[in-house]
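Figure S4 source data
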Amino acid sequence: MVYEPESVWEFSTTGNITFGLGAAEELEAVVQEYEATNVLVVTDEGVAEAGIVDEVIGPIESGEYTVYDGVEPDPALSTFEEAREVATEVDPDFVVGIGGGSSMDVAKTTSIVHEHGGDILDYVAAPTGRGEDVPGPGVPTACLPTTAGTGSETSPVTVISLPDEDLKVGISSGYQRPNVALVDPGLTVSLPPGPTASSGMDALCHAIEAYVTRRYDAKPAPASRSDRPDYNGRSVLTDQFARSAIEHVGSGLRDAVNNGQDLEARRNMALGSLMAGISFTNAGLGATHAIAMAAGAIHHTPHGVTIALTLPQVIRHNAASAFDRYAEVAELLGEDTSRASPGDAAEDAAVAVERLASDVGIDGGLSTLGIEEDDVVHIAERASTLERLLAGNPRRVTKTDLEEIIRRSI
């Protein structure tokens, strides 16, 4: 059969994005636009205790609202099921996710399952789930991020932990993109330095991996439009978002960590995270995220920290297939590559990432997270199965390659 390359690229994002200080104050107007009278708010205990939920939801006068604050980091299937049960009890006509990626993920999937019924795992790919397609839009949903990193407010994907199986799975559907994203840098001011650093490094990796992932026309053509994957390869449009995201995170993360009340730094980080999310949810990711997903599922390592400690070695592995792209990454992060050879410029990108991570308090290697030599093969085996992530990696990566990347990252 003759190989047929993809010839078009596709671009999707959240229905409406409102960005800037005070964006969260427009939630009441959004609820009114959707003529909603019964709102379900999905969040975590920390965000609720910080008073953010009361501040954002309090002004809503157009109807009743219920708060579910049981979301934890890397939410387990049981958390998704619990949120679905709350939705069944209150039958919302609008869902709001307030928090980091975990809360927004639970909110998005809750809106889908409440609208269409079935079990959560019905929409997870086989063999773990039944692999059913999401049949249509869910309950209208708005997402308000309180971190700058995950990009979940733009994403069609939600991540579900299965702790009994040391596994993370996902639901991917364009119908899971929120109707509205209200991205307010002011909601991130109370985020402590540690989570600011780790979520910021995750955003940086989103942008870098989207910028170097395989181009859309270096992938096989789908059998039909509906078969085109969400991660359909980089394009001129995703490149623009990725470049700008790298610059914003590179210029804002240090200040956001060292002075959380620096609104300019918080604005740079919120915008960088948003643009990185828009880019990677169309272009795709790569080996860094495959390794971090596997390590997180097996050892429950913090995602952003795992990303920060793994990305430099992935850059070094990939460099031979993307010298020019990594040279641009180095420049966007402030490195002078004008006299460097292509290989040295790519190395500058890895060094710039290591320096940024160190400056925001992420030092050492994966061993600081409890990962040892004996864990390498297991993590690599699990990462090698994450084809959705590895398909876009700019250089072919085998299980042996993954083992070596992990080993060098320890």
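Figure S5 source data
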Amino acid sequence: MYPNFKILPKEDKADLKARIAESIAFEKQRTRRKRLRTLSWSVAAVLFIGLGITILFRQEEKEISPIEQFAKNNTTEGSSFEKSDEVKLVLSNQESVTVNDSTTIAYDASGNKINVNNKQIKQTKSVDAQYNTVLVPYGKRAQLSLADGTLVWLNSGSKLIYPTTFNKETREVFLEGEGIFDVAHNAAKPFFVKAANNYSVRVLGTLFNVSCYSADAKVSTALLRGKVQVAYAKKGFFNTDTLQAVLKPGMIASLDKKQQIIKTTVQNVEPLFSWRKGYYEFSEQRLSLVLEKLTRYYNVTFVMNRKANQKETYSGAFTLNDDLDKVVKTLEATTGFEFVYNAQTRAITIN
């Protein structure tokens, strides 16, 4: 038997409506509290994740080596040295020394004495690491002999930061541009070449070339002798992958900065080391690659007014002491194209 609400007295009807309204209000209030509780947990979760990311980045900052931190805090604008006419050695006390052509910057075993320009420079001993910097403008090259006996050749438009002596468990230098390293063997102190974009080369004793110009789309390492390992820490908020590749003689590792991938190839790497001897050697290379090397060394721009065969390759050599007029004549004889040089704009038009 079901109750008949129609026959309820007015007082009972009013009481029933009040209780129903109270029940509905209670349910709405409980739902609102539940939503607020869920929102509070969501905000807390976001804050926790944000805190975790902050801690992660702080940890990554702590993992940056001292020489990388020094390079980060002591950036040099390209116009400051790339457009200069002379090689500069900047000491840890910010004193600048002009390096003469064909001069080797040589350190003694202690790292406190430097032979340069047939003179000896003495540096004050310090418990803390002291970093010196070599700046190489366009059209110039430089050679160093570091405190551990490692030999370094720097190409045009390059910068090398290094400690005056290697007192720690590892030997680390920081490179922008292109350098050839003949590393003194020391199994107890592995040698690292650090570069921008989280790229590094690890070696015990070997001869290799690293090209890491900031304007280039790729970073490359070529091995002539020994064995090296290249590593690249991929960028991204949640990306912790590190790409690695081990090179044997005759191998090149190329890092594509945009795609964040490393590819290795096997080829004749000898021509990539020729510039340390004073000449550029090209062996079956496309014209675009030849012009790219000359663009950087002579600080000129090539303007192509004709369509070149991308499959055609060229071989030959340029003496790096040659002036541009002689370089242009060599290019004309090799390619059969007309090269017109404008000295004011430093542009070479190819017709």
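The chain has three domains: 8-63, 66-270, 278-350. Residues 39-62 have pLDDT under 50 and may be disordered.
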